[in-house]
Design goal:
This protein is 9% helix and 42% strand. It is mainly β. The strands form 2 sheets. Strands 4-5-6-8-7 form a 5-stranded mixed β-barrel. Strands 2-1-3 form a 3-stranded antiparallel β-sheet. The structure holds zinc ion.
Amino acid sequence: MKESIPLTWRRIPERYRLLGVHCDTCNKSYFPKRTICPQCRRKGKLNEVKFAGKGKIYSFTEVSAPPEGFEDQIPYVLAIIELVEGPKLTAQIVDAQKEDVKIGSKVEMVFRVIQKDDPEGLIHYGFKFKLA
Ligand SMILES: [Zn+2]
């Protein structure tokens, strides 16, 4: 799981734009995007939605043994965030000490550098969250 985080950020375009789907049949939103509603299966009517980037902390952990490429950022807080639209996602919390982060804290999305020392010299951007 730890190794998969930067790969996920790099390879799934939805993670850069916070795109998901809303199902008109069960009235729930999902992230990342699905092609079939997990609840309604083929009866679901899915529409693409862009989430507002606001939510609250559902749970969190402090990372002190990071995946490769994140060594200069430790320690940092990795949280499961429940978006106001309902879906949950995992993201780094920036500009906050662990003591400031609480379950239920309101957060909002910010656009930040994810990783600078890519072997190909690329700089990867994506979303992180900060306390609102
Ligand atoms: Zn559905």
